[in-house]
Amino acid sequence: MMDYARATTIEEVKDLTVEELDFLYDEDANSIGMLLAHFAAVEKVYQIVTFENRDDLTDEEVARLNPALDLGRPAQEIKGYPIDYYLTELAEVRAATVEKFKTLPDEWLFEQTPFWWDLPANNYFKWFHVFEDELNHRGQIRLIKKMTKKEKN
Amino acid sequence: MMDYARATTIEEVKDLTVEELDFLYDEDANSIGMLLAHFAAVEKVYQIVTFENRDDLTDEEVARLNPALDLGRPAQEIKGYPIDYYLTELAEVRAATVEKFKTLPDEWLFEQTPFWWDLPANNYFKWFHVFEDELNHRGQIRLIKKMTKKEKN
Fold first, then answer.
1. Hey, of B39, B135, B144, which one would you mutate to test binding to chain A, going by the most A CBs within 10 A of its CB?
2. What contacts A16, CB < 8 A, 6 or more positions away?
3. Is A23 within 8 Å of A144 (Cβ atoms)?
4. Is the peptide bond before A67 cis (omega within 30 degrees of 0)?
C-alpha cells in the first residue's frame, strides 16, 4: 500500500515544471513542491517514532524537519527546485525505511504504544498513517494541478 | 483502515451547511457534497465487482451510479442536500459492505482476478482502493473547506 501510494504520487508529479511545483493558488496555499517535501518529512518523523520507539520528537528534530513538516506560510520558502530534487529525497528516505523494515519481524507491526490522545496504536497503524497522509495530499496535488492549468489558460 | 478513513471524512464534514456542501470553487469543480455522493457510488461499484465476482458493471449500473461516480460538471446537479442526506447514504452502503464481509472467509481477501490493465488484483487491493480514493478526496475536501472560508471572508 505504501508502494502503491508512492507510485501514484510520482505518476502525478513526474513531469511538472519548477513553475508548476511552486504554484500557490492563494497566499496561504501549499504548493505541490511543499507537499512533496512534507511527505519526506513525515516519513522521517515515523522513522524516529517507530524505529527508535520514541513517543515524541526533540525540539531539534522538529526544527530540522520544518518548515516541510508543518507546512503553511513558513514552508512557502520551499521553492525553485526541479522535480528530481523532491523525488531523490523521497527515494532516499523510503530506501532507509525499507532497509529497516527488512530487519524487523512481522510481530513488530503489532507492537503498541500510547499514541494520539494517549490511545494505543501499533506500528502498522503508524505506517498506515504515513501513507494515508500521502494519499490525502495526493488528492490535493491533483486539485492544485487542475487549478494551475486554469491559471495558465 | 476503512473505518478510520470514514471517521476522518465524517469529522471533516459533519458540521457543514448546505451552502458549504454545494460550494464550487470554479465552474469545473466538484463540491464537497458531490465528493460525498461519489464515496457511496464507488463503494457500490466495489460491492458489485467483488461480491458478485464481476469484472465490469452493466451500462444500467453505470447509469444508476452516475453522475456521482464520474463526477465533473454533470454531477454538479447534486446539490441542495443537508449533510445528513449524505451521511445516511454513506452509512447504509457501508452497513451492507460490512454485513457481506462478515459472511466471507479471510482467504476471500486474497482471491485474484484480472483487474486494471488486465493485471491480477485481489479483493484486499480492491477494497484498499475504495478507501484510498476516499482519502484522496478527503484531502480535497480539506482544501475546498479552506477555499470556502476565504470566499466568505
1. B135
2. A32, A83, A145
3. yes
4. yes
CATH code, B2-152: 1.20.120.450
**ipTM given for this complex:** 0.94
Q: How confident is the model at residue B36 (pLDDT cuts 50, 70, 90)?
A: very high
- Residue A55's identity, in one-letter code, is D
**Torsion angle in degrees (nearest 10) through CA of B148, A140, A46, A72:** -50
The secondary structure of residue B49, as a DSSP letter, is I
Q: Quick check: helix, strand or coil at residue B31?
A: coil
Residue B113, beta-bridge partner list = B121
- The C-alpha torsion from B13 through B19 and B20 to B22, rounded to 10°, is 90
C-alpha cell at A19: 513553475
Q: Write down the mean pLDDT value for chain A.
A: 96
Q: Residue B25: enclosing H or E segment and its boundaries?
A: none
> CB neighbours (10 Å) of residue B33?
26
Contact indicator for B46, B34 with CB cutoff of 8 Å: no
Contact call for A136 and B138, based on CB within 8 A? yes
Tell me: the pLDDT tens digits for A113-150? 999 988 999 999 999 999 999 999 999 999 999 999 88
User: Mapped to the 3 state alphabet, what secondary structure does chain A carry?
Assistant: CHHHHHHHHHHHHCCCCHHHHHCCCCCCCCCHHHHHHHHHHHHHHHHHHHHCCCCCCCHHHHHHHCCCCCCCHHHHHCCCCCHHHHHHHHHHHHHHHHHHHHHCCHHHHHCEEECHHHCEEEHHHHHHHHHHHHHHHHHHHHHHHHHHHHHHC
Q: Residue window 95-134, chain A: list those with CB within 8 Å of chain B.
A: 128, 132
In angstroms, the separation between the Cα of residue B64 and the nearest Cα of chain A is: 25
